[in-house]
Specification:
With 278 residues, the protein is α+β, with helices and mostly antiparallel strands. The chain is built from nine helices and ten strands.
Length: 278
């Protein structure tokens, strides 16, 4: 089956699909919605006020509406799609993504049997019931449910069973894990202050929020993600004087919550400024 036929079949069964491009990532926002200029937030439960008909906004684009999936505005995405994903939480499902043999062995010992789907590196164990999505709850174990997407890899084998408390507890444990408190930082913002002259203050606020999200959701290569995020923020707002110490501190706090030291944050910020000639 081609990606469009798979998507329509999933939608008919109540599972909201979305197209994935090469690299197993969602299609980026269209030019009208780039950098959430439309006012939407990709981490919200719906695309917000945006009326863009294209499959923008990552997992939030997933839908069971066949008219949308089969619309002319989605046609190019399906033609270019490398794979199909779905929003588990939107179908009241949770995927325990097991990325290596050790993770699979742990699941066999610990979790009740359920539907199992082979993945590129391991297996997806699918349970009935939605919960908060959390990455890296154990080595090689991610939980994908609400506000996340999982790649469609086929129907798998076995019968879907109810989401067990042991999986829910993994998310609680991850959320309660004691991490070093972010250290206060004092990094001067660029001179100028005030409103961003090329966009409204809301545009800057959305940009900072998206940058925090990008850092927070990094699963690997945190150093590189922090640097690239700082670079993106500075390339957009670094020359107009709209960034304040408060904005910078929010980015540093997000980075330190992922394990970055204050020194690494300062170095990444300085390197990004240097690269841009600021």
């Amino acid at each position: 089956m081609n990606p469009l036929d798979i998507a329509l079949s999933l939608a008919a069964s109540g599972v909201p699909p979305l197209p994935l491009r090469a690299g197993k990532v969602p299609f980026g926002n269209c030019p009208s919605c780039a950098n959430s200029a439309c006012g939407s937030r990709p981490n919200m439960k719906s695309p917000g006020p945006c009326t863009c008909p294209a499959p923008c906004h990552g997992w939030a684009a997933a839908t069971t509406d066949p008219c949308v999936i089969n619309s002319p505005t989605w046609a190019r995405a399906w033609r270019d799609a490398a794979a199909v994903a779905y929003h588990p939480g939107g179908a009241d499902l949770t995927v325990v993504d097991l990325d290596n043999p050790a993770a699979i062995a742990w699941a066999v010992r610990t979790l009740p049997p359920t539907r199992t789907v082979a993945s590129t590196r391991g297996e997806h164990w699918i349970y009935r019931g939605a919960m908060r999505s959390v990455n890296a709850v154990r080595d090689g174990v991610d939980i994908k449910s609400t506000m996340a997407y999982a790649r469609w890899l086929g129907t798998g084998t076995g019968t879907i069973t109810a989401l067990p408390d042991v999986v829910r507890a993994l998310a609680v444990k991850e959320a309660s894990t004691v991490r070093p408190m972010p250290q206060p930082v004092s990094v001067p913002a660029l001179a100028g202050g005030g409103e961003c002259p090329h966009r409204t203050p809301a545009y800057l606020a959305r940009g900072i929020a998206m940058a925090e999200q990008r850092i927070t959701e990094a699963r690997s290569a945190v150093h590189a993600t922090v640097y690239r995020t700082f670079l993106a923020v500075l390339s957009t707002h670094g020359r107009c004087g709209c960034l304040t110490d408060t904005h910078v501190a929010r980015l540093f706090t997000a980075a330190q919550a992922k394990g970055e030291s204050p020194r690494h944050c300062t170095d990444a910020w300085t390197n990004a400024r240097t690269r841009l000639g600021l």
